[in-house]
What we know:
Largest sheet: 4 strands, antiparallel
Number of domains: 2
Number of strands: 6
CATH class of the largest domain: Mainly Alpha
Structural class: alpha+beta
Shape: elongated
Distance between the termini: 49 Å
CATH topology of the largest domain: Topoisomerase I, Chain A, domain 4
Helix content: 55-70%
Number of helices: 5
CATH superfamily of the largest domain: Ribosome-recycling factor
Order of helices and strands: HEEHEEHEEHH
Radius of gyration: 22 Å
CATH architecture of the largest domain: Orthogonal Bundle
Amino acid sequence: MSGKFEQLEQECKNAIEHFKREAARMRTGRANPALLEGLMVDYYGSSTPIKQLGLVSAPEARLLTIQVYDPSAAESVEKAIRNSELSLNPSREGTLIRVNIPALSEERRKELVKTLHKMAEEAKVSLRSHRRDAIDVLKKQVKDKEISEDDQRHGQEEIQKVTDQYSKEVDALLVLKEKEMMEV
C-alpha cells in the first residue's frame, strides 16, 4: 500500500513542478530569465531553445540580456524574441541582445492574474485526478481482498492528506506569483 502513496507523492510533485514552470514563464513587471525559457529559435533550420544559444540574465529589474554564443545566431535570437507572443522589442549590439521589459498596465496585470488562476485550477484538477486514481487502486485492492475496508478508509484519509498538502502548496505559489504580478 505504501508504494501507491509514493507514486501519488511523485505525481503530485510533478504537477506542482509543472505549475511552477508555467507560472515562472508568465510575464510580470520584473525581468526574469524564465520569461524566455520556452522560446524556440530557428537555428540552422532546427528549432532550438534560446537557453542553448546564449546566456540569459537579468542585470536590472526591467532588463534582460542574452549573450549569444554564436555571432551568426544573434539575428535569429532577436527575431524570435520580437515575433513571440511576449510583445517585447529587443535591441542588438553585436552578440549582446538587450530586452527592456516595459511596465504592465493595470488591465494587463489583471488579465495575467486571471490566466494564473486558471493555471492554478488546472494544477488542482490534476491533483484531484491523481487522488481519484489512488483511491481507485484502494477500491480494487478491497475487491480483490488484498486489504480490509478499514485499511481502505485509512488509506483514503492518507491520500486526502497528501492531496490537501499539495493543494495548499499550489495556493501558496499562486498568492506569491499574484503578488509579484500586481507589483508596479
